[in-house]
Write a structure and sequence with these properties.
By secondary structure, this protein is an alpha+beta fold. The protein has 15 helices and 13 strands.
Length: about 425
Amino acid sequence: MFALIDGNNFYVSCERVFRPSLEGIPVVVLSNNDGCAIARSNEAKALGIKMGQPWHEIRHFEESAGLVALSANFALYGDMSDRMMSLAAGLGPTQEIYSIDESFIGLDGVRGDLKARALAVRSRILRWVGIPCCVGIGPTKTLAKMANHIAKMAERKSGCYPIEHAQVCDLCTLARSQVEELLAATDVGELWGIGPRIGKQLRAGGIATALQLARLDPATVRSRFSVVVERTVRELQGVACIGLEDASQPRQQIACTRSFGAPVMTYEPLAEAVSEFASRAAEKLRLQSSHAADVLVFVRTSPFRQDPQYSRSIIVPLRRPCSDTAAIVAAALLGLRAIFQPGYQLAKAGVMLMGLQPASREQLELAFDKPYAGRSKARLMQTLDAVNDRWGRGAIKVGSAKIGQVPRGWSMKQQRRTPAYTTDWAQLPIARA
């Protein structure tokens, strides 16, 4: 059996922990550069605000409905996620952190009333961290995910599902007829593993609910759609096809891209940005103990502006696969010099590391005339990461990133960001008598 614990409107809930005055009013969290809504409170959803809707289309709600819009504060959200997941782990013996606000828990061998246990863990997370969450329990991960959706909808919209399924929905304790009623009330597009394109095809074929999908023959589904949809059908039928992942798989590519807060037209600030993006990508590379063989760098203008358009990218191979920040930044800047053209209002740039391989895979050095310095470079990078982890990201940078140059014209717009309440001593809230 599996449980899925999911924080409700997670980014908004994190903000409300430190600003209780936001309770009961519509709130949205905006994406990088304050471009669009990436999280919405229930009150904002009731206004008809859609996920990903551009800010300029909804900002009128500030005046008409008291909407509060905040810039994304990912340092806060990441720290609150760590706290929530440490408590969620108490529900069962195994855990897979699926995303920043979702965690699968393996319940095999757990005795007693699972729903009561889930309610207790939910209450602990709410009391100790301040994040409201819902829990879904099912014999497969797909059914646990669906049960979590039912718990959320029953709590937010009692007309969708019976209220007894609010907060925690345990499909394992229900009769088959009750489970089929819930499957019949669940739109096929709400299922894990069914995307918009497959969902549209299923509806065109008369499959509109989860129950209708669950009654299909898996082999027929595989021949008509894909093995992924077949697996979803089997999971809906109670056959566990997806187990818990003890550790996340290393990524095959690592990218760091950003839209600029203001157009960039000259090389120097662009080089600062690319240096910082390459440094961040190298840090991510070391976190998963990998080396990169190639560095891709790109720049482009905004397709939404009535300006001359320009978009170029280039791949620069590294002399040997590595995770050395200096080598990766140097390759990125080499590529940038090759593709940069003055006179364009560049809106975005990025660096992508490709050809990833385990760091343990050694490659012989062909330049016999000088000793291989890879091990000393590895120790240097460990020291770099340790210092930045201790004193904050950016405490040590490569020179081309221009340490201390603030404000930077290319930096993202984050005019509505709240303080880093839990990760910066200078911004720690102070309670006064």
